[in-house]
Design goal:
The chain is an alpha/beta fold. The chain is built from nine helices and 15 strands. The chain is globular and about 50 Å long.
Length: about 300
């Protein structure tokens, strides 16, 4: 597979998570005979604070071992990298919840290779923490990811789009970042990708933290991306799994919740979602929801 970057709790606490996931997994399920590409989307990843400490103590493979088989079952895994990769000293390690430095992230240089080793071959960089160490931190992240052959899109330096061809299916990954991007740029990138023969997928960083239902303004944005030509819209940032819908036949998942994160204060932040989408030459042909649980030992496991 060739990858390149180009410029072009609340209500959930009353629901049974497994039943919710099973119901939403039934959006598409048709028999396919032509070329297909399977992409696994994950939510927010953070490799600082206690995650950094456990990786230093037990190794990076420890946090992934339970979910590894699931990640390797897709042609490509895409997730949100919630902060920069730099050689700067961590500010958040040892901080207390609520302190300003508790929300300032930097990830070790080894993070890029850790992602690659666990089949996370593409990451979104358009989020509210990528500039925690300024534009130098963002540029350092790009250099580290490129060296590890991890593709990326949405960075605040280039606002790039990532493209790939899997089994002959051409896909473009486009960011919308509510905290530093423009929806008009996202729509222009969707149109350009579609005109160039790619299937445009939007991975957005948006919304209200810890709310299980996406607000109306986010729904309006998602619909506008579909109207512009997106064939799937996936969201992150709220740190909980939000509702999903289909609009004009296109799946919209407003938030996948946490993937690698040290939040355990309520069930909703510990319950994430992996979204497996199968694409054919026309768009999404099948959907599978894979609930995950973030354990207090810092491991992440699919929910049986």
């Amino acid at each position: 597979m060739h990858l390149l970057s180009v410029i072009v709790a609340s209500i959930l606490s009353f629901l049974n998570f497994n039943q919710l996931a099973a119901a939403s997994a039934a959006f598409f399920d048709v028999h396919q005979t032509g070329p297909q590409a399977t992409i696994l989307f994950a939510g927010d990843m953070m490799f600082d604070r206690s995650i950094r400490m456990v990786v230093e103590k037990k190794g990076g493979h420890f946090i992934f071992f339970c979910v590894d088989a699931t990640l390797r079952g897709a042609d490509l895994v895409v997730a949100n990298l919630e902060g920069p990769i730099t050689d700067k000293k961590s500010l958040s390690v040892g901080s207390k919840p609520g302190e300003p430095r508790n929300f300032v992230f930097t990830f070790p240089k080894s993070t890029a290779k850790l992602l690659k080793d666990h089949h996370i071959d593409m990451v979104n960089l358009g989020n509210n923490h990528i500039l925690n160490f300024g534009y130098d931190g963002a540029r350092s992240t790009i250099v580290a990811l490129d060296a590890a052959d991890v593709a990326h899109f949405g960075d605040p330096v280039h606002f790039g789009v990532a493209t790939t061809s899997i089994n002959g299916i051409a896909l473009a990954f486009i960011n919308y970042n509510e905290f530093g991007g423009k929806a008009s740029t996202t729509r222009q990138q969707i149109a350009a990708a579609k005109s160039a023969g790619f299937l445009p997928i939007v991975y957005a960083h948006w919304g209200v933290e810890y709310e299980p239902i996406a607000p109306a303004y986010i729904r309006t944005l998602a619909h506008s991306f579909v109207d512009a030509g997106a064939i799937a819209v996936i969201g992150s940032h709220p740190h909980v799994v939000e509702d999903n819908e289909t609009y004009q036949g296109v799946p919209i998942y407003y938030s996948l919740g946490n993937f690698i994160f040290d939040q355990y204060f309520q069930e909703s932040v510990r319950n994430g979602l992996l979204l497996k989408l199968t694409f054919d030459e026309e768009g999404v042909s099948a959907i599978q929801d894979i609930p995950i649980e973030l354990n207090r030992d810092w491991t992440v496991c699919p929910v049986e």
